[in-house]
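User: Could you go from structure to sequence for me? I need the amino acid at each position, not a summary. Structure tokens:
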């Protein structure tokens, strides 16, 4: 099979044929899929990073230096995420989950939109912005108290609460990444959706899938850092392209669900 990337604006017959034959599907999503829900990406010219240096907001050292700034900024992000609604791309992934015997969504997003769209089989590699845990004792917050300065604190030890996301310089939780790597390794088709492909180790998952024989496709509004390594690059909004994949699979009904591919 050629590894030369095809630049397309809709799914190819080859991709549709691969989906027909696939017994396992893995999808990786990045911030780009949530843009269609009105959420800015960190790296957009008018995105959330424009006003602040990431090192001032997304490291434990920065949080300990200025917990009020970081708590306030993440609360604003949480409110923005909660006000957004899942778009057609999120909903199409939920349908792919429902239609596939072996499926895993691996998301780098912390905005909870995939969960609210109804996707069941997923891992959140970078955590979840709606969760909080104590920066000192590490316990999740089940009861909220406030300091005299109005900061959110742990009810057990009075440490400040930090968002339950992976900050710069922190390693990914082992279990979610192991699940993601396993799903990528056994996938017949791997979809990389709305990701810049510059944040590792998540960016390495499409390459892992390809090394293990998957047909790897990128769906993005513009090429990413790894577009040249894909079998196909489909340029366009995920909310338009992913429903086409679902429509094709549904056209094959009654769907003959096969056992997960365990030969690799």
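Assistant: Here is the amino acid at each position, in order:
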């Amino acid at each position: 099979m050629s590894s030369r990337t095809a630049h397309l604006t809709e799914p190819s017959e080859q991709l549709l044929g691969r989906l027909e034959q696939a017994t396992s599907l893995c999808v990786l999503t990045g911030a780009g899929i949530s843009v269609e829900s009105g959420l800015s990406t960190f790296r957009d010219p008018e995105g959330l990073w424009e006003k602040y240096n990431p090192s001032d907001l997304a490291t434990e050292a920065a949080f300990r230096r200025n917990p009020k700034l970081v708590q306030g900024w993440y609360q604003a992000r949480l409110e923005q995420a909660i006000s957004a609604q899942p778009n057609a791309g999120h909903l199409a992934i939920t349908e792919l989950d429902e239609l596939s015997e072996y499926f895993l969504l691996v998301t780098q997003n912390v905005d909870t939109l995939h969960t609210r769209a109804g996707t069941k089989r997923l891992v959140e590699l970078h955590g979840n912005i709606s969760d909080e845990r104590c920066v000192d004792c590490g316990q999740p917050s089940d009861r909220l108290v406030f300091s005299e300065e109005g900061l959110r604190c742990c009810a057990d030890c009075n440490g400040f609460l930090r968002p339950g996301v992976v900050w710069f310089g922190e390693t990914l939780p082992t279990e979610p990444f192991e699940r993601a790597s396993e799903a990528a390794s056994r996938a017949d088709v791997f979809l990389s959706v709305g990701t810049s492909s510059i944040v590792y180790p998540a960016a390495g998952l499409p390459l892992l899938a390809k090394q293990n024989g998957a047909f790897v496709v990128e769906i993005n509004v513009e090429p990413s850092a790894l577009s040249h390594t894909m079998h196909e690059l489909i340029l366009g909004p995920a909310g338009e392209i992913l429903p086409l994949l679902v429509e094709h699979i549904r056209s094959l009904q009654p769907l003959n669900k096969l056992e997960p591919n365990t030969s690799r």
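One structural detail worth keeping in mind: The radius of gyration is 19 Å.
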